[in-house]
Every structure is written in structure tokens, then in C-alpha cells.
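Practice set, problem 2.
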Amino acid sequence: MGAKRLNVPRLAFLNIVHRPVRAIGLIVIVAAFAFVIFGGNMLNTSLKTGIDNMADRLGADLMVIPKGADQNLENSLLRSEPSTFYMEDNIVCRLALMDGVEKASYQLFIASLDAACCTEPVQLIGYDPETDFIIKPWMVNSMTGELSFGDVVVGNLVLAEPGDEVTFFGQPFKVAAKLDKTGMGFDSSIFMTADTAQHMIDLSGERAVHPAGDSQDLISAVFLKIKNDTDLHQIVDQITKSYENVEVVISDDFMSNISNKLNKTSGITYVVAIFLWIAAILVLLFVFSITFNERKREFALLAALGADRKRLTGIIMCESLMIAAAGTICGIFITGLILFPFQTLISVSMELPYLMPDFMSIIKNLFVSVVISISMGPIACFYSAMRMSKTDTYFILRENE
């Protein structure tokens, strides 16, 4: 078997292999940074996707709710935290007849403290199929017919499939369909017609320790679609002056508040990433600088054997590139093992609309993260490479005599 040619990449690889402790330490540093940058990019992109998806399909311009229930509405829509708040239903017809209102539909929220389908309390939402324009857009690919009395539609995260039965307040209900993933509280909610919801309220009065209500004329929220040529704030003023016990949530303001929370989260993530990038480069720079001093004689001997300064510089750069690439691969692989299998847990814990982006967005984030992470190696060893290009072989050998 002939001897293998010791070219620059092979020499760099052998140098890494023969110094495993140093190499592993540097790989861990790069892997930690790659984990943060790729994980942070994916989290921010998923949150932005969830918020954009929610804004596109929420449908309503205004949400009319009982006074003081704005936080309950946010908890229900974003996090599916079970909430029960009511107002009289006679407001629906009056709001629908207002000038400038194009569509009006109501929902009825019921908090269930126990359900066999779910590991924790769920939000039950009753809606009017005839006027609804909020829930139906999420059912486009999951349901063909109309929802019947006694049937329910479950969110994407609910542990039930079409054809199964779920039990609430001691009575089974048939699962007619399952919603597409929404990235919001709807994923952990259960939907039914208003008649079925009222039936559940009646059952809760008979069988629950804490009844969900005691009236036949209750709703939780009215969703309004306003005509394009209508002044939104004028409608809001008209509603608040006409009804003392309600408040109006403007969807754009609601989404703006969510976006502000995302911007704060993104800002923190980017600051941490920049800090880690600088810190990692400084550490790598320090390690490469010390290593260069320790390896002066090695490089001098290679030079004496015929290696020019360009080749010696190439060895240093190639080593740093290999270490950075190995660290990047490890960091991104670990990030993938956490982000993708546990995306449901992450979605629930984020308390913001969270929806995994499409394949091309993932590839884009992956590419950016790889480029930034791998660039750390060459940048960090650039100083050592410059020193090598200016070092005289004769004086290095004399130093080590």
C-alpha cells in the first residue's frame, strides 16, 4: 500500500485528530453558538408565522366582549386557557343592524375542568354556523358538511380523532372533525354549535361542581366584520356609548400588542446571539493564538521540508474551518432534535401564536445559521494566519534550539 499524500486538508485533519481535547473544546463552543443562532431563528420565524397566520384568518375587525374580559379573551385565543365570561345575547342582532357592520357572529366560551381527551382543562367554544366567519376558515380541509347537534370539532392538539367520542360533564359527544394547525389557542380548544354549547351549560348545572352558567340567553363575544368604507373608530365609539357593560377590542390593536411581544422576544434573542458570537470568536482567537505559539517549531519544520507560507497558512485556516463545520453540524443537529419532535410542547409553553414555518423558510434559516456559525472559525484564526505569513522560519528554529 502506497503512502498517502499529505496535502493541506489531510494535514489539518491529522492535527485535529492528534489534539482531541483541544478540538472537542472548540467544537463545543461553536456547537453552542450554532444551537442558539439556529434555535433562535427558528423560534422567531415560527412565532412570526403564527402571528401572520392568526392575523390573516382571524377575520373580525372588532371583538365585543363583557367589560373587563379582555385578558380572558387574549388567554383563550392565544393560549387556550379555559375562560368563562358572559353577556346577554340580545346585543348580537342590534350590533348586526348597525350601519357599517358587514357581518356579525357570536361565540360562547365554556371552561371544562376535566375531559378524558385532554391532559389539562380545555376551552369549549360554541358558535353559530349560520353566521360564523371565524371558525369555518380553519375547517376548510377537515370538514365537508355542517356540524350537527351533539357533534364537536377538536383542535389540532386535542388527543382525539374524527369518529372518536369525548366526554364532558358526564355525557359523550362525537368528534366530527379535527382542525388544521392554527398556532393559536384554537389548537387546544373544542368547538360545537351554540345549541350543543347551551346543552353543555345545562349539563354543567346538573353535574358540575362549578356550573358554567344558569341562563339560556348568554354569549361570550361578538365578532364584527366592518365594511371597507366605514370608520372603524367611529363604530367603536358608537358601541361603547350605546352599551355600558361591554368593551370593544380592535383586532389590529390586538395583533399589534402580540407583535410587540414578539419584537421584544426577537430583540432579546438577537442580542444574546450577537454577544455569544463575539464571545465565541474571542475565545477561539485566544485558543488559536496560544496554539500558534506552541506549534511554532512544528510549522518551522514543515517550512524546512518545503512547505511555503501560503501552505502553512492554509493548514491553520483549514483546521479552523473543519472545527467550525463540525461544531455547526453538532449544534444544528441537537437543535433539530429539540425543535421538531417537541414543537407541540414548545407551542404550548410559548404563550404566543406559534406555527412551524414552511420548508423553504426552514432551509433559509438553516443556510443563514450555517454560514454565520462556520464563519467563526476562519475569522478567529485570521490573526494567527497573518502571524504565520510574516514569520521567518530561520528565527523560529533558532528560538527552539
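Problem 2, part (b): a different protein.
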Amino acid sequence: MNHSLIRPGRLEDLPELQRLHAECLRSYYYDDLGDSEEPELIRGMNAVFVDRDTDRLKGFVAFDRVRRSQALPDSAPSKVPLRAAAISSPGPAGRSHFRALFEHTHRQLPLQSQGYLFYALTRQGWLRASLKESGFDQCDAVRFYERRSSEVEPVSQPAALRPAQPSDLPQLAKLDAAAFEPLWHMGVSELLQLQRDCRIEIAEAAETMVGYSALRLIADGSRPGTGSAQLVRLAVHPGAQTRGVGRQLLAASLCRATDLGFGRVFLNTQESNMPSQNLYESLQFRRRGRAVPVFVKRVEQGQAKKPAQ
């Protein structure tokens, strides 16, 4: 007899969900969503694993179906990041539970010709094993850099720089789609959110957008020079690369951080992106910490089916 049940989460599951995350060693929250509340996760695309005998949660996963960007090519899949997970059972049983939860979750998605790209960033061993059990493959890793020097050497100025306006976002999304693979792409809705807490600077050459940067200032309320700045985005159109546009945007961001009294600038980039790493290291950025592996699984049309009634 099956004493377990998999179903979508409900708001009344919140106390059990909080208990599971508090007590479970195999618990995960995506770093960028650390301030998310559990009700947000329950209202999203999720599944819970319930013990019928005790009515206690034994597992939970939550994915976030990102709104599809109109700037993506028709063949590009829609990305679906893992937001949170928790599994109480260790070893093979836990991996099996995660796989069942994942399969239940992706069946909630409607069929679409482009398919879906599920992905997760994690160093946690139990989650990496569970993702592999569910058919995910490691495609890359995210590497972190930090710079503490306040000196910025002069660089060439191949483009004119200006702050972004809301009306620029559709064109920026097209530039972003040309510069990044679908997994890393930001559409208009994501760029709008980015603009709310970052300064987005656009590079133009011959009245054409050729690149942009996004700098976030993180003040901690202490004395000047002790806060941090994060270069959240640096993108150059493929047709304008190798001209020094990226170096110009990066140097301008560093100068702005220094002028405002922020002594530390940090960023991240893909481990496979050697041109970006070479650029950062040439401007005194140094690697910090361990890279975070990136796991992906593409679900094609016909694989994501509606749950049985």
C-alpha cells in the first residue's frame, strides 16, 4: 500500500513547510530569492511529498516559470529556475522523492513548441545528486570576482554612454538576447526589475545600442568606503565586441563606485566565458570563493503533460 502522496502545495501547508526547512539537512533556497516568503513559493509552481499516515511533509520543490521574453528567438526554450527544495529522506530514497516531485511539477506546465529549460545553481551535494537522478546535466558554473582597488586606469572611449530610460528596455532586451544564451537572458520584465535598484548605462555607437551595464550600490550605513557595489550586468552586442566597449562600460562603473565612496566591487560570470574573465582580471578583479555548478534539463514538447485526472 502506498502511504505517500504527491500534490501541489497549499497555504495550509506553510507550518509544515517551515518545519521541513528548519529541521531538514537537505534544504535549498536560491540565493537571489533569500528574502522570498513561503506563501510566494506555495502560490507558484510546486509540489509536496506528504506522508499519508502522519500528514507530515517529507519533501518539497518549487520552480518559477519566468515570463517568456519576446526578444528570444522562436526556437529558444522558456527557462524555469529551481527556487527552493527540501527532502527529509537521505540517499537513494531522497533522490527518488526529488525526481517524483520534479516530474509532478513539470507536468503542471502547458505544452508549447519551444519546450522548457529547467535549471538550478547549487554546490550542495545532495541536490546535485538529486538533479542528476532527475536527468539534469551540469552545463557550466558561475565564478565570482572582487575588486578592492580605487584606482581606474584611463581606457579608450569607442562609444557614447548615457543612463537608460524605461523606453529603452525593449531594445535592451533584444541586445541582451543577442549577447547571451537563453539561460542567461533578461527580458523586458527582468530588466525593468533590474532598473529599479541599479543604474543601467547604455553604450551607443553611430546612434546604435552596442552594450550596457547595470551597477547596484549596497550601502551598509557605515563610514564611506566600506559599502559594496555589484556589477550585475555587462553585455556587448556580438557585432561590437573586441572594440573596447565592454572595457569602457566596466571602467565607467568602477569610476562611479569609487566616486560615491564604495571601495569594493564584486560580480560573477560563467566559468566558460573566458573573454569576460580576461577582461575582469585585466582591471584588477580577483577570483573569490568556489564556483557554483549550473545544472540544466530541457523538456521538449510532448514531455510536459497534464496530470492524470
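Answer key, part (b): The chain has eight helices and 13 strands. The radius of gyration is 22 Å.
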